[in-house]
């Protein structure tokens, strides 16, 4: 047996190795995911975060592998897996100090946008643009709350590039204060040009950009409905993606899919491959649009998405996340004390999907509404499927999450699809390290 990813340090600290019992009947823990590969069988334990490779001989008789018992891949038949998971997470919370400083700042330079997408959840929100005075307050707030840590700036909107001068200002002032940072951005990408790309690289320390495409040219231009007249926005955005990756900024393309456009997404994936090849700075994934659908429509759309992602994977540009290396204690920015959202008027929030409400404070005051902060940490009640779900140790469904489509067969299949891809990715990295 080869250890690709060792047991999470927190699990080792809380539980340690499992003691073997003579005569005991063992089974795979509920949280173990299996994936055959050319060299044998990968096993990933979502509770211990460990990934191992078994030879074909070892895989033929799993229960005979004593090290799988030591490392909690195998447990006694009557073992209560969910009880252990809850205990581990409770102890991990006690052992892991809560963040005392804020290291991730999601900043909205504006809630205005140059596009008019029909599906935007911000429709009806009054556009607010950050002033130069507020931008300087933002810098003072960051300096006062980051401790000595390097920080991450996440530019969001609206369309953040509509107010790029505030991004310039904040980054310039942070540099002047000697604050180490890097930044990421969610943008439609339209407003980039050669000069801005260079500023993004050098001044903004921009490392990653997410850009959404809604279809091929005709569909994209219709859905985005930019405020500009007589332009081919689709071609311009593709050109800007090329400029970004040319200077080493990673671009993550999100393909928003629904019944109205899924039929042309294969053509779009092929077009992206023709434009950019298998560029190491480019990755692509699909995401379902919000909306009410029948169970039958959900199943059909999911099957089509999986075919699309297989095609993207063949082109070598599918986004694949690394597997977590330790037990995580929160779902996202919303329930993380080390993360805040800063609205254009300086109000403080916990989630970028709540850009005009549910604020817990303001950058010019140290007063905090802990009721709001606790509200964003509240988790949904467990359901029957949790008892046998391999994702349970890494799943924290939040009551306030507007991105939560519910736990359906499709969401579980989609999660398994991503997890298996991540397992293969980690194994490929392991093999590359051995070769080098």
Q: What distinguishing features does this structure have?
A:
single chain, 436 residues, alpha/beta, nine-stranded mixed sheet, four-stranded antiparallel sheet, 13 helices
Low-confidence stretches: none
What is the end-to-end distance? 21 Å
What structural class do the secondary elements suggest? alpha/beta
SSE string:
EHEEEEHHEHEHEHEHEHHEHEHEEEHH
Biggest sheet: strand arrangement: 12-11-10-9-8-7-13-14-15
Give the overall form.
globular
Total beta strand runs:
15
Mean pLDDT: 93
User: Over all CA atoms, what is the radius of gyration?
Assistant: 23 Å
User: What's the tally of helices?
Assistant: 13
Describe this entry's structure for a reader.
By secondary structure, the protein is α/β, with parallel strands linked by helices. It has a domain of 122 residues. It contains 13 helices and 15 strands. It has a nine-stranded mixed beta sheet with strand order 12-11-10-9-8-7-13-14-15. A four-stranded antiparallel beta sheet has the order 1-5-4-3. Strand 4 and strand 5 form a beta hairpin. The longest helix has 27 residues. 32% of the residues are buried.
């Amino acid at each position: 047996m080869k250890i690709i990813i060792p047991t999470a340090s927190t699990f080792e600290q809380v539980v340690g190795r499992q003691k073997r019992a003579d005569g005991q009947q063992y089974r795979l823990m509920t949280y173990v995911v299996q994936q055959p590969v050319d060299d044998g069988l990968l096993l990933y334990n979502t509770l211990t975060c460990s990934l191992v490779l078994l030879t074909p001989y070892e895989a033929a008789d799993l229960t005979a592998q004593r090290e799988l018992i030591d490392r909690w891949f195998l447990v006694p038949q009557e073992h209560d897996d969910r009880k252990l998971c809850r205990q581990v997470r409770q102890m991990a919370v006690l052992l892991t100090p809560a963040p005392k400083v804020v290291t991730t700042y999601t900043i909205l330079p504006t809630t205005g946008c140059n596009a008019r997408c029909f599906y935007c959840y911000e429709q009806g929100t009054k556009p607010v643009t950050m002033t130069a005075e507020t931008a300087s307050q933002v810098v003072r707030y960051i300096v006062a709350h980051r401790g000595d840590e390097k920080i991450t700036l996440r530019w969001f909107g609206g369309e953040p590039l509509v107010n790029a001068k505030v991004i310039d200002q904040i980054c310039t002032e942070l540099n002047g204060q000697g604050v180490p940072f890097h930044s990421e951005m969610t943008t439609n990408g339209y407003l980039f040009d050669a000069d801005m790309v260079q500023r993004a690289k050098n001044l903004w320390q921009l490392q990653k950009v997410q850009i959404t495409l809604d279809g091929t040219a005709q569909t994209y231009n219709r859905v985005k409905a930019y405020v500009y007249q007589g332009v081919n926005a689709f071609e311009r955005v593709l050109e800007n993606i090329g400029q970004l990756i040319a200077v080493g900024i990673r671009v993550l393309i999100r393909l928003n899919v629904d019944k109205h456009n899924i039929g042309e997404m294969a053509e779009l994936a092929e077009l992206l491959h023709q434009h950019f090849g298998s560029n190491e700075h480019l990755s692509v994934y699909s995401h379902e649009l919000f909306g009410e659908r029948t169970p039958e429509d959900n199943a059909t759309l999911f099957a089509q998405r999986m075919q699309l992602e297989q095609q993207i994977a063949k082109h070598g540009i599918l986004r694949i996340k690394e597997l977590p290396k330790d037990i995580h204690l929160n779902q996202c920015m919303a329930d993380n004390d080390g993360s805040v959202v800063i609205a254009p008027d300086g109000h403080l929030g916990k989630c970028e999907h709540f850009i005009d409400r549910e604020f817990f404070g303001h950058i010019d005051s140290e007063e905090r509404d802990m009721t709001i902060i606790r509200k964003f940490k509240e988790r949904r009640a467990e359901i029957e499927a949790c008892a046998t779900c391999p994702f349970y140790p890494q799943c924290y469904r939040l009551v306030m999450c507007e991105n939560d489509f519910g736990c359906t067969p499709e969401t579980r299949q989609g999660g398994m699809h991503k997890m298996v891809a991540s397992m293969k990715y980690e194994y490929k990295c392991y093999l590359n390290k051995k070769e080098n």
